[in-house]
């Protein structure tokens, strides 16, 4: 099985970090993984995205043309990447910040109030962590539960910020334990 | 006054004449004959007057002159 | 009788390709003499430039490397970083040092690389046949300034010592000349001091030498020597601009601001 | 076996260089390879090495020349416009027979272009972008693992043959993270009796130079012929390539780096649709793996070269596939656009 995911949002929402953590989590489970961030001048002006592949077989191309999943943390990202989804793909959009509905009818959608859910776990900046917990839940077979994220956070987070790992794990866990209504 | 003598390796000489100009005793002059490169070279016309000051050798860009001194 | 002045041991006994009366030969000899006196033939690494002195390694018998035009200080930097215990000499002409290689010149000095740059300033491009150099004098006729260098069009000649003397890091900057014996002796002393400082780890040293190019100036060697004294020296004053170990420390060498504290 | 780590391609190159014994690194910032200098600035001091941010690309490559002449393993890195500036030094280093490694994380061109990954520097890299008759060994990794492994190989080849080696990647490969098992530290290095270490009484002075002025004697003629004898040895011994499902393939896709990965995906999808496609991926671009390509193409009906440029490697494919030029087709996208798998598949299907 191969899952191709695009994370997108504005700078500061931690979309590239979320992608990296998912990649590391996949690696810890001996999956084949790849992560390509948007970079350089592309990142100036506020938008950021990354492409993550988690697969049971060798990743042929790390480039994602038709994602299985798009995670859009703000409105411009949804507008841009919704149309990339393959038919039947899943759009997870941050309904805390996005006040419009997805327009495509041939995809599945999930309104995820990521900012609100993060705030509920006292982790106001943890919308990206909510996404990770949600993905582990709604993409069966990709990541086995919350455990792999502990390793991933430990690898990805600098020593200075490691003190936030427990609260981030708690946020991921809370998001993982929710039930989601995919339309 | 020291006594000395210039040893002139004429085949290295390019005939610039800078040595002749700096000699305080005016005992160097250009040769009539030419070396293998076809240029005139300095000759000492009065070795007895050489004071081994080494000015000619110092000035020479081509390491033509060595100085022997007593 | 014994030899009072002899052919330098660290010079190869081969004829040079320089023209008669060219200052390069004098400076090569001085470098070889200093190497002999300091007994550092095993320690010196020479960078030869593009320009008339490209064959310096054929005459001075030390391990040597050619550099592309203007890049000698960069090559010297690489060598020095690998062998901090060796004495690296970057030997350069005026086009190399102040035109195509201005960036490398300024930045090696600014980093305070512990190398010695010997700069032969003869106010003209020799190897290519007499074009304007960045140091050609105003009014000087060259192949590319047939009516004389026009300052309105191409600016005034650059003074390397004064330029580098605005930087913090250089430790020793002196301008010398080789148009007569007393000045040749001073030049040798300057080269020796520069290499001594380098050996002691003092930092960047720069010796400029006003030199003759009779062929491309189109004059006799003796006239060329006078031209250095009468025409060049007034614009390029001789002397020690900076000798930090020796106590000549201009204000520029002691910055009082520009350091960010945490 | 060593542990797997997730690394960016750029970082994998930097760490592998350190493990290959590179202790001197000089560079000037340019996107998309800035992770290499940032990594080296932190890493090299830990192993007693020297990182120096040069004032220009020209200075950086010439610092490499000096450091190599002095006998060290050294490296510089840049991206396309910066590599253009380095061509002077690359030519001099090649002429002077110095070993060194340069990394080019290609971006879109010509000119300032853009900062997306691209493959427009193939000609410059493989034909010799500087003046004169010479070659640079060009290695084009396709994964982060290969970026580490090829860096080690580049230092090895550089020292073995006294040549310049280029790692030719692109912005995507440089920025991409993948799991990677880092190579072990290299412990043994070849002797360099030619290096500048100070002339001792027991030997003649060492001279490193590319000037061979004596035209009448044919000094440069002989020197260049000697260079090319050396290049011939490299061609005979050092080609690297990957063949994937070529044995029974009707259609051979060829591409390197990022493009090869797109092609690999296309091959897999074509096979699922019952179309016999295969991939030939040169890893060394110079020397070009000519024999290997010819063998891979023996039974193919058509060969399609895919590039992130307007067609550069395709010339080498035409020259070396042992087939009629008419059998070789091309598809490419310039300016930092990655050819899509769909477009590649469509192209192949059009041959049916």
From TrEMBL, chain C:
User: Keyword Cytoplasm: yes or no?
Assistant: no
What keywords tag this UniProt record? Oxidoreductase
Q: Which CDD domains would you find in this protein's record?
A: TPP_OGFOR
InterPro entries from the UniProt entry? 2-oxoacid:Fd_oxidoreductase, THDP-binding, TPP_enzyme_TPP-bd
**Residue ranges of the Thiamine pyrophosphate enzyme TPP-binding domain?**
57-209
Q: List GO molecular-function terms, semicolon-separated.
A: oxidoreductase activity, acting on the aldehyde or oxo group of donors, iron-sulfur protein as acceptor; thiamine pyrophosphate binding
Secretion signal, residue range per the UniProt entry: none
Name its GO BP terms in alphabetical order.
cellular respiration; small molecule metabolic process
Statement: the UniProt record of this protein carries the keyword Transcription regulation: no
Q: What is this protein called?
A: 2-oxoglutarate ferredoxin oxidoreductase subunit beta
Native organism: Treponema bryantii
Tell me the organism's taxonomic lineage: Bacteria, Pseudomonadati, Spirochaetota, Spirochaetia, Spirochaetales
